[in-house]
Amino acid sequence: MKVLALAGGVGGAKLAGGLYHSLPPHSLAVLGNTADDFTLWGLHISPDLDTVMYTLAGLANPVTGWGLSGDTWVTLEAIRRLGGEGWFALGDQDIATHIRRTELLAQGMPLTEVTERLCVALGIQTRLLPMTNDDVHTEVDTPAGRLPFQEYFVRRQHRDDVHGIHFAGIENAVVPATVTDAIAAADVIFFCPSNPLVSIGPILAVPGLREQLREAKAPRIAVSPLIGGVALKGPADKMMHDLGFEATTLGIARLYTDLLDGLVIDTVDAELAPAIRDLGMQVLVTDTIMHDVADRNRLAQEMLQWSDELRPALAPMH
Amino acid sequence: MKVLALAGGVGGAKLAGGLYHSLPPHSLAVLGNTADDFTLWGLHISPDLDTVMYTLAGLANPVTGWGLSGDTWVTLEAIRRLGGEGWFALGDQDIATHIRRTELLAQGMPLTEVTERLCVALGIQTRLLPMTNDDVHTEVDTPAGRLPFQEYFVRRQHRDDVHGIHFAGIENAVVPATVTDAIAAADVIFFCPSNPLVSIGPILAVPGLREQLREAKAPRIAVSPLIGGVALKGPADKMMHDLGFEATTLGIARLYTDLLDGLVIDTVDAELAPAIRDLGMQVLVTDTIMHDVADRNRLAQEMLQWSDELRPALAPMH
Question: Are strands A230-231 and A262-266 parallel, antiparallel or unpaired?
Answer without folding.
Answer: unpaired
